[in-house]
Design brief:
- It is a single-pass membrane protein.
- The protein is mainly alpha-helical and 216 residues long.
- The protein contains 13 helices and no strands.
- It starts with 11 loop residues before the first helix and ends with a helix.
Length: 216
C-alpha cells in the first residue's frame, strides 16, 4: 500500500492494514508515517467511523506511551482528528491523555483534544473525574497564549454542561480530579480568573469574561 496515495480513496482493508502495521511494527519511522496517514484519513467522517470499528483508537492511543516525542505528537494529532466524531469521543481514554507528559508544543495538541472532548456533554463526568492537579496552574498570565486559551475554553465548556446537568456536581471526585482542582478551591480559581481579566491579549480577556458569566 502506498502511503502517499490520497487517504480519501482508502478502503476499509487499507485502514485495517495500517492499524495492524502500527500495532506490530517497532520502527519509529514507520510508526510516525502510519500515524500521519491515519490522521489525514480521519479528516473524512466515514474513515473516523471505520478506524473506530476496526479498533484503531486503542492502537493509536497506545502510541502515547512510546518514548519518542515525534510519535507521541503524531498520535495526538490523529486522536484530535478522530475526536471530532462523537462516538469516538466516548472511546478515547481521557486518563491517558491527561497523564501524557508534554513538551511546550505537544501541550497545545493535548488541549486541542481535550477541548474537542469537552464539547460533548456526555463526556463531562469523565473529564471532571480525570486526574489533573496541574490544570489550575495553567490559568496564569505567564502561560503561552494558545495553551491558556484552550484551557479557558475547556473550563468554559465544562461549566456550561455542569450548569445544565446538576447531577455532574457531587462530592465523590478525587482531590486531584479536574472537578476538585477547579471547583474544590473556588476562591483560588476566582482569583486567577480575576487576574486574567487584565491580560494583555483581547481574546484571553473575552474568554475569561465568558467563563465568569457562565459561572454566575
Amino acid at each position: 500500500m502506498d502511503l502517499s496515495n490520497s487517504t480519501h480513496d482508502f478502503e476499509a482493508d487499507d485502514i485495517q492494514n495500517l492499524i495492524h502495521l502500527l500495532e506490530y511494527t517497532k520502527d519509529p519511522t514507520i510508526q510516525e508515517q502510519v500515524l500521519i496517514t491515519l490522521s489525514n484519513s480521519a479528516a473524512f467522517s466515514v474513515n473516523q467511523d471505520t478506524i473506530r470499528n476496526l479498533g484503531g483508537l486503542s492502537v493509536v492511543g497506545k502510541m502515547l506511551s512510546v518514548p519518542v516525542t515525534n510519535i507521541k505528537e503524531k498520535a495526538l494529532n490523529a486522536l484530535n482528528n478522530l475526536s471530532m466524531n462523537i462516538k469516538n469521543q466516548e472511546v478515547v481514554k481521557v486518563k491517558k491523555v491527561f497523564g501524557y507528559s508534554v513538551s511546550a508544543y505537544s501541550e497545545v495538541q493535548v488541549l486541542k483534544l481535550l477541548v474537542n472532548l469537552s464539547a460533548n456533554p456526555a463526556m463531562t463526568e469523565h473529564l471532571l473525574n480525570a486526574q489533573a492537579p496541574f490544570l489550575l496552574s495553567l490559568c496564569d498570565s505567564c502561560t503561552n497564549k494558545d495553551v491558556l486559551l484552550r484551557v479557558l475554553v475547556f473550563i468554559t465548556n465544562l461549566t456550561k454542561h455542569m450548569k445544565k446537568d446538576k447531577s455532574t456536581v457531587h462530592s465523590e471526585y478525587n482531590e486531584d480530579s479536574v472537578f476538585s482542582v477547579l471547583w474544590g478551591n473556588s476562591t483560588l480559581c476566582a482569583q486567577k480568573l480575576a487576574s486574567l481579566l487584565h491580560h494583555n491579549d483581547t481574546e484571553v480577556r473575552e474568554q475569561v469574561a465568558e467563563l465568569i458569566m457562565q459561572q454566575c
